[in-house]
């Protein structure tokens, strides 16, 4: 088993929690983060974005690896062009919360041969957009609407359908810059049903929101916008993760 899939499975099985940092290729790496020793405490680095076409992706991944050693780098593709053999793995996303065939299977078909030839570790991932009705870049690009936090059964049934289709990882995303993150009730219900690695991102801009996601069942939380605004936020959440996992070990 390759390293990112094993990482996710180990987190899910053990109950320990992980933290991922999402880097948008259009923004690159904030200079304030380049000398952060805490970066080595990350579990995963995701690279990708809704608007990026993929140019320079390999260069960015090489740059990331020169700054942070020992942390796997995984592509979080926003389009068929975001593929690079420089990464360690790729989340092979199917946007199952929407009904636009281009993001259910169309972009995936267009990228399949390149991904196959790249030798990347591929993680079949059910991608589900959930928030309180806000529309963000991912909704604009995918031409789909998010499911609502109030639609707990619909969200969980959607995740269950993804499980039955054979998807092995689940990503609940409120969208970049969301005011309201995915709700605790949604996270708990999805995790209870799928019993598979669960990634949660979008709107996690405070320690309280991150803790709520972890308490509800998220195995890996994804930080992005708030780290760009305040790099020290990343330190704070890594400390929270450390405390959370130490408490688990003590029990």
Automatic annotation (TrEMBL):
InterPro entries, A to Z: GGGP/HepGP_synthase_I, GGGP/HepGP_synthase_sf, GGGP_HepGP_synthase
Binding sites annotated in the UniProt record for sn-glycerol 1-phosphate: 171-177, 202-203, 224-225
Ligand binding (Mg(2+)): 24, 50
Domain of life: Bacteria
Pfam family membership, one: PcrB
EC number: 2.5.1.41
Residue ranges the record marks as coiled coil: none
Family the UniProt entry places it in: Belongs to the GGGP/HepGP synthase family. Group II subfamily.
The protein's name in its UniProt record: Geranylgeranylglyceryl phosphate synthase
